[in-house]
Amino acid sequence: MKIEPKRIGNSTGFIIPRDVVIRLGIEQGKSFYLTELADGGLRISPYDPEFDKTMRIVDEIMDEYKDSLRALAQ
Questions:
Q1: Which domain holds residue 63?
Q2: pLDDT tens-digit map of 4-30
Q3: pTM (2 d.p.)
Q4: How many independent structural domains does the chain possess?
């Protein structure tokens, strides 16, 4: 399904069609993750406190070993 960004106040956002909102149980006030994918795409998933904790740990490890990770990526 194709959606386009729209101006919402001073921000830019995406309008999700009503049938998708209902089908996925999306409610105002819920939190979601926006994850950048390697292919340039985006993934939106429900907020999960355990996943958030894991990602914080991963970020710390990546910061600590950034030089080693950069060398391995070559």
A1: 5-73
A2: 999 999 999 999 999 999 988 899 999
A3: 0.53
A4: 1
